[in-house]
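Archive maintenance. Older records in this collection stored only the sequence; we are now back-filling the structure field for every entry so that each record is complete. The fields below show one back-filled record exactly as it appears after the update. Entries are processed alphabetically, and M20/M25/M40 family metallo-hydrolase is next in the queue.

ARCHIVE ENTRY
Title: M20/M25/M40 family metallo-hydrolase
Organism field: Belliella calami
Length field: 426
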Amino acid sequence: MKIFKSLLSLALSFLFVQVSAQEIKPSYKTAVEKLAKKKEVQDAFAYILEIDEQTIADMITLTEIPAPSFEEAAKGLVFAEMLRNAGADSVWIDEVGNVIALRKGKKSDKTIVIDAHLDTVFPMETDVTVKQRGDTLYAPGIADANRSLAMSIALMKTLVHQNIKTIHDLWFVGSVGEEGLGDLKGMKHLFREGGHTIDAFIAIDGGGIDGIVNGGIGSLRYRVTFKGSGGHSYGAFGIGNPHNALANAISSFVPKADLFTKEGIRTTYSVSVLGGGTSVNSIPYESWMLVDMRSESQERLQGIKNLFLESIEEGLEKENSIIRSGDSLTVDIENVGDRPSGLLESEHSLVQQSMAVANYLTGKQSRLSSSSTNSNVAFSLGIPAVTIGRGGQAGGGHSLDEWFLNKDGYLGLQNALLLILMQGEY
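Back-filled structure field:
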């Protein structure tokens, strides 16, 4: 349970964003207004409201299927069947478990991906039964990201029912491995070298629709384990102590990391989880830690990584230098997370369209931000991407008290629909 809580705190830190407001070019506002006033689009807006009750029912169904990272298969099968029933032209599950549904375009010369992730941060044994109190739904994962999955189904239904076809192909993806140590597994496979060409990427994985993520905060995570023979605290005294080596490494790293992060593009570090040892009267045979480092700059991320790895070696050498008997300690360094960083400039058409659509529906000025989402991979490859909000109201993300209130939730769907039609060239 302690490890779960620590990993939970790591996952929660994904929610950190740096926010700025940007201007929308008038031409994009005009284009959105023209599109939204088309009769078929207005009919689609009305249909979204008509099926709203079923969209909520789909969200509840998906929420009540446990799906921690690496164990999304059961939910994936249900999600795939829902997309088939919604009228997708074809549905398949790829080699790593991503569910992909095709809405074929008129020309199919480009592919636009609309993504919602299947996994949650909660262990398989977590009670994910949805409970309703008043108008509010409560359950772990109800909003993040089961709301997004239900939106994908509703969007497919809307396109099919209203016979709306874009020029380009649309892929609705339920992806695996977005959370925590999932390390964007699904996205890394989707964007792999030699894979299908993706021309633009839209992730539905945020809160209010006026918040748009156009930058990725990259992260590196390591599990470092110092190892020795272990022994009695008195009888084996003088052998190497892995805890000492780990403490030495941390005390070497923190001052250097502190100095490094005081200037330049924001870069962070956290020694987040510690473990090892068997009893108070035993020298441990291993001591381990999980460490998280983040930055919007790939160069800065590599810089703090180098300081970290240097400090590990220093910690090991310092403890080995005072060993009186037995073998030297060793260290295993495992990279357990590598999320790339990147940025799509605010002047790009996808960002401008996203802001213009949100502004049209809410009347609010959009807020651009950087965060850690499935869009990170696309950002790092120079592929246009944004992460947009789910709409409605939600809170308690990544906690057992997570909740969702369907207050104007339809706006989240209308927002996604307009952006999809603009990118798909309707």
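Update note: Residues 1-18 have pLDDT under 50 and may be disordered. The longest strand covers residues 218-227.
Entry marked complete.
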